[in-house]
Design a protein that fits this description.
This protein is an alpha/beta fold and 260 residues long. It has one domain: 2-Layer Sandwich (Nucleotidyltransferase, domain 5), CATH 3.30.420. Helices cover 50% and strands 17% of the residues. It is built from ten helices and six strands; from the N terminus they run ββαααβααβααβααβα. A six-stranded mixed sheet has the order 5-4-1-2-3-6, with helices on both faces. Strand 1 and strand 2 form a beta hairpin. Helix 4 packs across helix 10. It is globular, with a radius of gyration of 18 Å.
Length: 260
């Protein structure tokens, strides 16, 4: 069973750009990460790593009032723990404003297929693409492990996410065969969700740059540039934007409507 911890960045119902990202690692590596993560939280006197609460001067984290360079220095320590224990990272970015416009065309396409539709929430599309990205990766490496997806417990979308994945498993045979567990957990207790929060926040900031993603030198690219080459981290990501109109529409039909 491969445990994959996932988190989102951006308020899906409000933001023009949102993303979902996460990590997979072995049980032993998750245990190692949690031990070092807890030690770093104690060292820095913070209850957890929540990027929006840390990076905003008005955030609730004790670190919110720190100087930017002190925040980066602290976050780098957590990033190096991620580099040490994580197997692979995944990320899906979506121009949500454009997506909301395009789903109107998707609804029309659905009617052509005789399918009644409900509004296609952008976070649910991100979940579907994340499942496909992860499953494709495991197929490529020849792994037959079952997947356990663990999301941050959120009143905003947890039940919607559970409902959608359940329907996705009914429609898509590969998801039904592969995803055997769907869990929602408290990120203040499950430290791997805090690691996913860092990746989601950085991914959102970088992928919205389009072709320049991860190319500029800034605090986010510096955070994910391994200081020790031995800790290089494989990372699979995809960006859906206005430049991908035809493929995005096809993906919406495939993920949200078509039986597999």
């Amino acid at each position: 069973m491969a445990m994959i911890f996932l988190d989102e960045s951006g308020h899906f119902s409000e933001s023009d750009f949102v993303c979902m990202a996460g990590y997979v690692a072995s049980d032993a590596n998750w245990d190692g990460l949690c031990k070092e993560w807890k030690s770093l939280l104690v060292k820095h006197g913070i209850p957890g790593v929540h990027m929006r609460e840390i990076m905003s001067p008005k955030g609730k984290s004790p670190a919110a009032s720190w100087r930017d360079e002190d925040k980066v220095r602290m976050l780098r320590e957590f990033i190096l723990v991620i580099r040490k224990y994580i197997h692979t990272g995944f990320g899906v970015g979506l121009e949500a404003r454009y997506y909301r416009e395009l789903v109107k065309a998707a609804a029309e396409e659905a009617r052509k297929h005789g399918v009644k539709t409900k509004p296609f929430h952008s976070q649910l599309f991100c979940v579907a693409r994340m499942c496909r990205l992860i499953m494709t990766y495991f197929k490529e490496i020849g792994s037959e492990e079952q997947l356990s997806l663990i999301f941050d417990d959120s009143p905003e979308y947890s039940m919607k996410c559970y409902s959608f994945v359940s329907k996705l498993k009914q429609r898509q045979s590969d998801v039904r065969r592969t995803v055997s567990s769907l869990t929602f957990a408290d990120d203040s207790v499950f430290y791997p969700l805090q690691a996913a929060d860092i990746l989601a926040y950085a991914t959102c900031n970088e992928l919205k740059k389009g072709a320049r993603a991860w190319s500029d030198t800034n605090m986010f690219t510096d955070l994910f540039r391994a200081e020790d080459p031995a800790y290089g981290l494989p990372y699979r990501s995809e960006l859906w934007s206005e430049a991908d109109t035809e493929t995005l529409l096809a993906a919406i039909v495939e993920e949200m409507m078509s039986p597999g």
